[in-house]
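Hey, I was hoping to borrow your eyes for a little while. I'm sending you its amino acid sequence along with the backbone structure tokens. Take your time with it, there's no hurry, and the full record follows here.
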Amino acid sequence: MKEILATKNAPEAIGPYSQAVKVGDLMFTAGQIALNPDGSWAGGDITAQTTRVMENLKGILDAAGVGFDKVVKTTCFLTTMDDFVAFNEVYARYMGEGLPARSTVAVAGLPKGGLVEVEAVVLLR
């Protein structure tokens, strides 16, 4: 059974997709960019944008009743690998000890001219 999750603690979708979808014991989040929960652009450098992205993910996780310790896989998109180290510093603060599997790729562009986007697969039990 597929269940749609929506929360005011993260920005609404800016296209035809859901913030997150629960299927069984798993939740799949949409990619989060540096939008504030009210939909305004947070902007800033890679550190500021990554912080906003991770706060958006935290909002979705909170709405599902879980924390970052339940994240099993992330896919991270950067517009330049020059930001890899700074991105990792912020990402690691949120993920803590039980690090998930991860893919990080460089892309030609992201919505709203963002520098980073992160999506997650989460274990709900």
Remarks:
- The chain has two helices and six strands.
- The domain at 2-123 is CATH 3.30.1330.40 (60s Ribosomal Protein L30; Chain: A;).
